[in-house]
Design a protein that fits this description.
The protein has 131 residues and is an alpha+beta fold. The chain has one domain: Heat Shock Protein 90 (2-Layer Sandwich), CATH 3.30.565. 30% of the residues lie in helices and 24% in strands. It contains 2 helices and 6 strands. Strands 1, 2, 3, 4, 5 and 6 form a 6-stranded antiparallel sheet that branches. Helix 1 packs antiparallel against helix 2.
Length: 131
């Protein structure tokens, strides 16, 4: 096992990676569950994408997806529940894939707890707006 530092970005402990067998795991990033943490999360995701050799468009889509996930955690899991907590990201890279895990302690979302829309057969312009 060896620890390497990524060279694509300024030195930061979240860009170190642990190499074990054929799999590399970047040091995890833990940030407060607040919207002002999105910039650091974006840098972490882009560093992982660079490490994986993703093309610019794919890296952007990955960053956008993680940004949307974390924004939902913050707005609907922490803020709406009047809770505070952290968001942790862990990037794992092997020769075929990049996996980014997002963990939080926010209120869980269970879509089964919401009533299904009643106007699915109506034309789009006649449907109620989502809350």
């Amino acid at each position: 096992m060896a620890i390497e530092s990524a060279t694509a970005y300024p030195p930061d402990p979240c860009y170190a990676r642990l190499v074990k067998n054929d799999e590399a795991t970047m040091e995890s990033l833990t940030v407060p569950g607040r919207l002002d943490s999105l910039e650091r999360i974006g840098k972490y995701v882009m560093a992982a994408a660079a490490e994986a050799g993703l093309e610019k468009a794919a890296a952007y889509r990955l960053r956008l997806a993680i940004d949307e996930i974390v924004t939902n955690v913050i707005l609907y899991g922490y803020d709406a529940g009047s809770r505070e907590g952290d968001v942790e990201l862990r990037a794992t890279l092997d020769d075929q894939s990049l996996t980014i895990c997002v963990e939080d302690s926010a209120i869980a979302f269970d879509p089964r707890q919401k009533a299904p829309p009643i106007d699915l057969d109506a034309a789009l312009e006649d449907r109620q707006m989502a809350a």
